[in-house]
Amino acid sequence: MIQITDEILNKYLDGELSREESEQVKYGLSTSEELQKKYNALKLVHEKLFDMKEDEVSPAFADKIMNQIVRRKFAIPKQQKYFIVSIATFITLLCLIIFGFVISAIISSAPSSIGESKSVLDSVSTLTDGLVKTLQHLFSGKGLSIIGSVFSLLIIVSGYFFFEMQKRAKANLSNGQHL
Amino acid sequence: MRNLSDQEIIDSVRKGNESDYSIIINRYKNKAFSMLTRMLKNEFDAEEVLQDCFLKAYNSLSSFKGEAKFSTWFYRIVYNSALTKLSSQKRKIEAEMTSVEDHFNLVSEYNSVDIEKKDINELVHKIINKLPEKYSAIITMFYLNEMSIEEISEVMQITASNVKVMLHRSRNLLRDLVLKSKLSEELI
């Protein structure tokens, strides 16, 4: 004969007992008023829990989420925005530095008497020659290696930020990725 | 369209029909909201967390492998988000303290004239809201969302036998309260 505990009553209610055990519980219930009362209360609770009503969210809830989904689809994520802006700023500054350097090199190499003795055409050709020479100087030998180093650094920094961004995005989604 | 299975809707959303996701939202919003309200004990927080859950689920649809049912996957997001919210509010420790063995305190709390005046449904509702979050989550998933013990154990990442123990404890608590009330004389 099994001892009819609360656990056994719960299992009996859920139909988890073997046929033999169920018979024993049935017999126990028919002979003990106290046990019968306990079981009936448990059954009542079980039934009342099934009658439980759902709570309702605000009526516009689904629309609110769909609007957010549409908005997010067309919006660049904040982190990505910061990333693009910082890279663009860096490239712009680099270009300005190169441009400034080229202009200063041309001005310093040009003869001081451009406007006095030569025509406008000659001045333009002198400036063009200067520009070509400066660019040649910049992109050859030591200059080229400096530019290469700067761009490599740029690529490494961009790669690091991109990797970090991916990592954060993955971490944010980790809640639902296991199933 | 309403009769489509979750998997069919997800496939459609993945193909680019994102408006179909609203069917999923309407299908699960109230059930998930009920679970969150009972876990967080606050409707405002529940709605806020639920919004995040639907957005998180939408963004993670590509990672949903279909090995489990969508509902199990989604409720796991809901359950984890609720726990995260609770821990961020630092209420978790407080709630844990009133868990398991402390359920007798709840019984004594209701050991007053007040209990006699209560309607059985109201009593059940009030007690579920007072249960620790894990217990109220189990009750909601089992009775309201009609999930199996195995599905609940998958959502909560605990064994099926632990789910059963927690379910039985919650039921026993409610039973004790019913037996204490005068309602038991009328109803049993």
SSE layout and pairings?
The complex is a heterodimer of chains A (179) and B (188).
Chain A lengths: L5 H8 L5 H13 L1 H18 L10 H14 L3 H32 L4 H4 L2 H19 L3 H31 L7
Chain B lengths: L5 H9 L6 H20 L2 H17 L10 H19 L3 H6 L5 H7 L3 H5 L2 H11 L2 H12 L4 H8 L3 H21 L2 H5 L1
Helix pairs in contact in B: 2-3, 2-4, 2-9, 3-4, 4-10, 6-11, 9-11, 10-11
> Per DSSP, what share of the residues of chain B sits in E-state strands of 2 or more residues?
under 5%
CATH architectural name of the largest domain in chain B: Orthogonal Bundle
Q: Give the termini separation of chain A.
A: 44 Å
Q: How many separate domains make up the residues of chain A?
A: 2
State the helicity of chain A in percent bands. Answer: over 70%
Order of SSEs of chain A, N→C?
Answer: HHHHHHHH
Strand content of chain A: under 5%
Number of helices of chain B: 12
Task: Provide the CATH topology of the largest domain in chain B.
Answer: Rna Polymerase Sigma Factor, Chain: A
Anisotropy-based shape of chain B: elongated
Q: Which CATH class of the largest domain in chain B is shown?
A: Mainly Alpha
Structural class by helix and strand composition of chain B: mainly alpha
Radius of gyration of chain B: 18 Å
Q: What is the overall shape of chain A? A: rod-shaped
Unreliable spans of chain A are 175-179
What would you say about this model in short?
The complex is a heterodimer of chains A (179) and B (188). Chain A has 179 residues and is mostly helical. Helix content of chain A is 78%, strand content 0%.
